[in-house]
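name: query_chain
kind: protein
chains: 1
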Amino acid sequence: MENIGKYIGSGLCSIGLGGSAIGGGIVLGCVVYSIGRQPSLENKLFSTGMIYFALIESMGLFSLIISIIILYG
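structure:
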């Protein structure tokens, strides 16, 4: 019974990976759209977009680490 709880908890923590993937896609899609509208701001938009993308992906990595800790800890 204890293993079932670990699997369920690990699976629920893995939902954060999908959320971070969706969020990263939205951010980068908006960056590409914005660069298309304002090509003169390409450097600023790209650097800001990469910072936000890194923050979003770090949440996904935290979710993965917690999921692994629950599963094997």
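note: The helical segments are 2-13, 15-37, 42-72.
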